[in-house]
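Sequence in, structure out. First:
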Amino acid sequence: MEFERVQDISSSSLLNEAIPLEFIRSEKEQPAITTFRGPTPAIPVVDLSDSDEESVRRAVVKASEEWGLFQVVNHGIPTELIRRLQDVGRRFFELPSSEKESVAKPEDSKDIEGYGTKLQKDLEGKKAWVDHLFHRIWPPSCVNYRFWPKNPPEYREVNEEYAVHVKKLSETLLGILSEGLGLKRDTLKEGLGGDTAEYMMKINYYPPCPRPDLALGVPAHTDLSGITLLVPNEVPGLQVFKDDHWFDAEYIPSAVIVHIGDQILRLSNGKYKNVLHRTTVDKEKTRMSWPVFVEPPREMIVGPLPELIRDDNPPKFKSFAFKDYSYRKLNKLPLD
């Protein structure tokens, strides 16, 4: 085991109503101090069943330019499938430690797949109040069932079904975003690798925390991905940074939360915003979320799309192989 799981730390911390020092954030990060308490602007919600396609396109593009995040409803993923996805994920995290450790990320692994706790370097040595499980769900050539839980038994069937639906939704949104750049519908999909783009499932498990005023489930970050499609459970926690404030995101049952990630920011040469976000935790309830990160293959070079570059719109970003970009970002190395 890489080190103690937060789920176990939570159980002991709740008894004495204190948390270990390494989980206490500096005052510039503590949610009790930094969360905006006034009227909160509504995060855009887009109804994908609207028959006015131009209206849907405008809404998605505007939200991606201004927020880098929006919620979609009537998105085509069955509500019952989302419920089953969340049920099998929750049941995995409720298993005894020994069963969860059977799919743990190997200590010497260069990849992130598997059950784990620590994800990236923190310059202040702080820890996040979260355990997680990563595994790829698409394309089939990239799936490694070694990191898919065997228990509950229906875990594989549900995730394979979900992969088909989430891929379809992702391609719909990437098509709309491509058209918003004045380009062919498949441009951003191809910019992320086309049919070789990888879909990485992550389950975040944020157990109850006796000091939610001091800790964070995940600190402020933008996603490495091109685009991220996330479904949360009913416990609030997602916060979005906009106009120099941290705002709480409203929970909408069965909605999918869409994050624009670093690779779409770079492919669009900055037209679309990569959303800065973080997660808070709850004193009494477990928060969970299921993001799927749509990413280019590791070796693929990603940078501003040539079709967008002109004298009055020079490239704002350096091109990187995705594996190099990821390594540099996770290790807090320069990206210019």
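Second:
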Amino acid sequence: MEKINNVTEFIFWGLSQSPEIEKVCFVVFSVFYIIILLGNLLIMLTVCLNNLFKSPMYFFLSFLSLVDICYSSVTAPKMIVDLLAKDKTISYVGCMLQLFGVHFFGCTEIFILTVMAYDRYVAICKPLHYMTIMDQERCNKMLLGTWVGGFLHSIIQVALVVQLPFCGPNEIDHYFCDVHPVLKLACTDTYIVGGVVTVNSGTIALGSFVILLISYSIILVSLRTQSAEGRRKALSTCGSHIAVVIIFFGPCTFMYMRPDTTFSEDKMVAVFYTIITPMLNPLIYTLRNAEVKNAMKKLWGRNVFLEAKGKSWT
């Protein structure tokens, strides 16, 4: 069957049809996006300038912050602009690129969170062998694996969609291009494609979530043999990781572990893993981690000292 594609652009319905609500959302999400950028950049600068890259946990944390910035930037700027725009349109190519970006950075974040759970497992359950197991070469290979895994996942998603014919309508009941809303617009039967999409996304989301739950369960059980101080430090670090996992994987599992269907609540659920989680990650990791807070204080203190010294010289 020859592919027929009469659609050159798609129209988003956005978060709301009410101009008053859209104005409020514009202010709120603009602030959220600024927090995402500043918070994650601060973590990256703290890790870099304090030479914390030698620690596997902070090595992966800095790249998690990078992925959070990229992930939110795929959808947030367009959504914020559209909140005040009369016509919320996106080209066909732009839609496919956005779909690729959402799944590429989203899947990469899932794999990085899984690697970070493994890092905590080795640090707490095998402390004497930690630096041998998590050496720099292995960390680099694991990080590369997260990016490659994200790319393979997203390229499959896009390949499944681009081969479908779109002949109208072209209105997407969402604020960005995601697989399920776009599949609804295809003028052909998408049952098999929808099933493959669900298996692809659902297996990664649920599979990684189960692995994470098992990893942290083993860690919590092993803490019974630790000293009180060791338990406190381990719970402080793992507690932040578990909080991020629940906030991120809960909505992802809801969205991608079901058949090819869409609900009106999908847009608000998507806000959690595209905007809320990238915004909360810096807060969770800094407020729950004494070492990161101390490193930030040293960085801030160093900048204040250099500024004061510069003024004294002038």
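Remark: The first strand starts at residue 9 and ends at 12.
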